[in-house]
């Protein structure tokens, strides 16, 4: 288990199993609704875990009865998120530049999950609105509890979702008709519907069972070669956004280097000798 110390407001980071980190959003009294500091702290945590030589998989979940209710609209209305943050007499071009920079900053915080070198498993539970979808579609594996209530909420506050949902959800293997319906209506949908359309890969009866199932996945991933799992995530994400020919070429270039790892020998020998393989830190 890691001995690193993570002290970031609104988050608990624990290490319940070897090479596994759990990142828990911790603002339960506000249903884990995000204020600006939380975006940046989440990004800092994920980036540190991505670079950690001891961590091989990450579980992302929330404290209390909600994963996250999304953006803390009350706090945002008093700060730059839903305000201009610029002089009231600024012209439209200057206001637009300010808004663009602010949006790109928040997008980058969530993109850090997708770019994390380590696989990230998310457990959606309870209220999982707005930003919850942005976060989850940036993760590698999505699980949900039976009580999960999901919603792309942004049209109800007068904006188009701009942090990742409208970009990543259409590439998540779900029906485009369904994506447009839930995004345009902001209707709530449950875990079973999310499973039926392919947004999540499993529904667990409650949060305790959900954490157990998610940690099982994390432990299984952590038992594999970290070179292999890192490469697998990288190549899947690259191929999603490129042609088959480009994906194959990138895979060949990637493995031309990565096949030289000693992990291949360790994995093959452990299979022949019927023992659990051990792999060096990254």
Automatic annotation (TrEMBL):
One of its GO terms (biological process) is fatty acid beta-oxidation. Pfam families: ECH_1 (PF00378). The keyword Ligase does not apply. Keywords: Fatty acid metabolism, Isomerase, Lipid metabolism, Virulence. One of its GO terms (cellular component) is mitochondrion. InterPro entries: ClpP/crotonase-like_dom_sf (IPR029045), Ech1-like (IPR045002), Enoyl-CoA_hydra/iso (IPR001753), Enoyl-CoA_hydra_C (IPR014748). CDD domains: crotonase-like (cd06558). GO terms for molecular function: delta(3,5)-delta(2,4)-dienoyl-CoA isomerase activity. Belongs to the enoyl-CoA hydratase/isomerase family. This is Enoyl-CoA hydratase/isomerase. It comes from Trichodelitschia bisporula.
């Amino acid at each position: 288990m890691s001995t690193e110390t993570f002290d970031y407001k609104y988050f608990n980071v624990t290490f319940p199993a070897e090479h596994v980190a759990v990142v828990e959003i911790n603002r339960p009294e506000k249903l884990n609704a995000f204020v600006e500091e939380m975006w940046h702290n989440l990004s800092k945590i994920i980036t540190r875990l991505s670079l950690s030589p001891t961590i091989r998989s990450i579980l992302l979940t929330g404290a209390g009865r909600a994963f996250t209710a999304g953006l803390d609209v009350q706090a945002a209305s008093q700060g730059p998120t839903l305000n201009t943050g610029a002089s009231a007499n600024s012209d439209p071009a200057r206001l637009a530049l300010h808004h663009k920079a602010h949006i790109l900053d928040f997008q980058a915080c969530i993109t850090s999950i997708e770019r994390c070198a380590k696989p990230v498993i998310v457990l959606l539970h309870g209220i999982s609105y707005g930003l919850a979808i942005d976060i989850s579609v940036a993760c590698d594996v999505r699980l949900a509890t039976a009580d999960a209530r999901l919603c792309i909420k942004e049209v109800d506050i007068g904006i188009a979702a701009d942090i990742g949902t409208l970009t990543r959800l259409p590439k998540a293997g779900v029906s485009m008709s369904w994506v447009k319906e839930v995004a345009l209506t902001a209707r709530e949908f449950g875990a079973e519907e999310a499973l039926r359309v392919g947004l999540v890969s499993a529904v667990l009866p409650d949060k305790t069972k959900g954490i157990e199932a998610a940690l099982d996945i994390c432990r299984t991933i952590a038992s594999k070669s970290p070179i292999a799992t890192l490469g697998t995530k990288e190549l899947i994400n690259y191929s999603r956004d490129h042609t088959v020919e480009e994906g194959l070429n990138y895979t060949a270039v990637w493995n031309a280097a990565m096949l030289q790892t000693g992990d291949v020998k360790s994995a093959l020998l452990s299979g022949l000798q019927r023992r659990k393989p051990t792999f060096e830190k990254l």
